[in-house]
Amino acid sequence: MAKKSGGGGCLAVVLVVGLLAFGYYKWQHGSSSAPPEGVDTGGGSGRYVALGDSYTSSPRTGRQAGTPAGCDRSDDNYPHLVSAKLKPAQFADVSCSGATTDHLSQAQKTGNGTNPPQLDAVTAETTLVTLGIGGNDIGLIAFASSCATTHQNSAPCRDRLTAGGHDQLAERIDATAPKVGALLDRIHEKASKAKVVVVGYPTVLPDGNGCWPSLPFGAGDIEYFRGTLGKLNKMLEDQADAHRAGYADTATPGKGHDVCSASDTRWVEGLLPASPAIPLHPNARGEQGMADAVLAVLKLP
Known about the structure:
Blueprint: H1 7-28, E1 47-52, H2 54-57, H3 78-86, E2 90-93, E3 108-110, E4 113-115, E5 128-132, H4 135-138, H5 144-147, H6 156-161, H7 168-190, E6 195-199, H8 219-242, E7 246-248, H9 251-254, H10 284-297
Parallel strand pairs: 1-2, 1-5, 5-6, 6-7
Antiparallel strand pairs: 3-4
Helix pairs in contact: 3-10, 7-8
């Protein structure tokens, strides 16, 4: 049963929004230190290349790995966990916070350095590629601060984004689909022998009305964004099926581990992270869950 809102709830919303804005600024402007890291040699066989955005790079969950520092890669993200299991001869994690599909073929400027086109890391010798992309093309995280509300039963973002009968985020998902398909085709062209796995996004929002004011989104917006993330994952799965790639479903095992779940079980942090992570992104537990989903596709324990 929802609790009656009061002044305390409104104050919590104001504090959350202010801290989220500060955290988002720090994330966008990157870290000031970055130990150099190129391609890791694990001593086994094959070459594994990880491509993706911040759900792949996993900002602030572990020690920073690789350059540029502005990509905010952590050494406990799912690519590193998969690599530790596979032990390939070569491993390149070129994922980067803020990446869109364009940054697979174009350089990406960050607040602290420039990331080369991610596809540059895919070579003819590559035997495995994981791809986690699309969320920034849709703009899901970018709406986080603007959707916070002091009215628990409202839906300001849904109302704005579906005004006039046009669902802007659904249209962006449709527009992103052929870009993902083209990327998969390009990966196959560059690495014809590689196994390619598209990695979906984990469950971020719970079933039901959410957990206002801890997550200060109205019930209607919770439903809207939950449905939008489902549409995004369905698009990614469809593109994987159509372009000879596997699909790692992280949403199904992530159910019950959303931002409103207990802090010791959640995979994705809320606006005020209780574990090392940035807002509305996976923590180390979530990255392990995503790694397990990839390994399941590869039929490895």
